[in-house]
Amino acid sequence: MRASLIQIAVDPDEPVAARRARAARLVREERGSADLVVLPELWTVGAFAADLFAAESEPLHGPTYEAMAAAARDAEVWLHAGSFVEAVGDALYNTSPVFSPDGELVASYRKIHRFGFDRGEAALMAAGEDLVTFDLPHLTVGVGTCYDLRFPELFRGLVDAGAEAFVVPAGWPARRRGHWTLLARARAVENQAYVLACGTAGTHADVEQAGHSLIVDPWGEVLAEAGPGEEVLRAVLDPAKPAAIRADFPALKDRVLGVEAPAKPRV
User: Fold this and answer.
1) What is the rounded CA–CA span in Å between residue 73 and residue 197?
2) Domain 2-252 is in which class?
3) Pairwise CA distance, residues 198 & 171, whole Å
4) Within the chain, where are the H helices?
5) How far is 19 from 8, CA to CA, in rounded Å?
6) Distance CA 113, CA 116 (A)
């Protein structure tokens, strides 16, 4: 299976409509080169441009949905369209739509862990509640977004739901790039699953983006890694590899669940 991660640059001087059209063109250019294409988190506005979230929000079946569905259909690819700001009544969500090669919506994930420590995304967006997977030919994929990467229990839940690979779009800051790479590899190693981590390039809201999207195999080996700028990262995935590694090194079978912390001794 051929995967392409489109590490698009978010330029605050580029209108959202223009970036949407450019992203659709980049997806279409992967026709014949990829089976699965992934875009980054909040590439329409920028993950740190919180002042634009409400103004650029849209319903699920809005302009970004329509543009990405058409691009997936034209390119004949499975498309994880990164994420955008979804408006549902008075609530906003960081939402990731996934499309089939026919342009049909096959999954939609609302980010569970919102970043900002009571500011930015954490204050302005509602939290999703559901773990989400979708099925590719011969591979089940779990979905997380950016800050989710710091919470291993989410990915364990996705493994329990059958995931053999994870797609993680992000708007990760350059100052914490070491964590980005480390956590992507850790989630791959501990879950014996592929990780396709797609970040943004550029600078928005005065926050330089890490770039350095990467594709990690179920043994934790980095198959491909991008640089800091706009780039399309490609790698070939073997759908049989997660099962083979889990059979050869069956660490997941040794999980001990439900362990409770000891009670604190009385003083």
Assistant:
1) 23
2) alpha beta
3) 8
4) 16-28, 63-75, 121-124, 152-160, 177-191, 241-248
5) 9
6) 10
Pinpoint the alpha helices (H) of 59-212. Answer: 63-75, 121-124, 152-160, 177-191
Single-letter amino acid, residue 181: T
What is residue 187's three-state secondary structure? helix
Instruction: Name the helix (H) or strand (E) containing 142.
Output: strand 139-143
- Quote the radius of gyration of the chain (alpha carbons, Å): 18
CA 36 to CA 57: how far, in whole Å? 26
Delimit the domains of the chain by residue range. Answer: 2-252
Global model pTM greater than 0.90: yes
DSSP 163-175: -SEEEEE---BGG
What b/e readout covers 141-153, taking b as 16+ CB neighbours within 10 angstroms? bbbbbbbbbeeee
Catalytic site residues? 41, 111, 146
Q: How far apart are CA 252 and CA 191, in angstroms?
A: 7
* Nearest alpha-carbon partner for 228 in 206, 215, 211: 211
Residue-level pLDDT, tens digit, the chain, 267 residues: 999 999 999 999 999 999 999 999 999 999 999 999 999 999 999 999 999 999 999 999 999 999 999 999 999 999 999 999 999 999 999 999 999 999 999 999 999 999 999 999 999 999 999 999 999 999 999 999 999 999 999 999 999 999 999 999 999 999 999 999 999 999 999 999 999 999 999 999 999 999 999 999 999 999 999 999 999 999 999 999 999 999 999 999 999 988 887 877 766
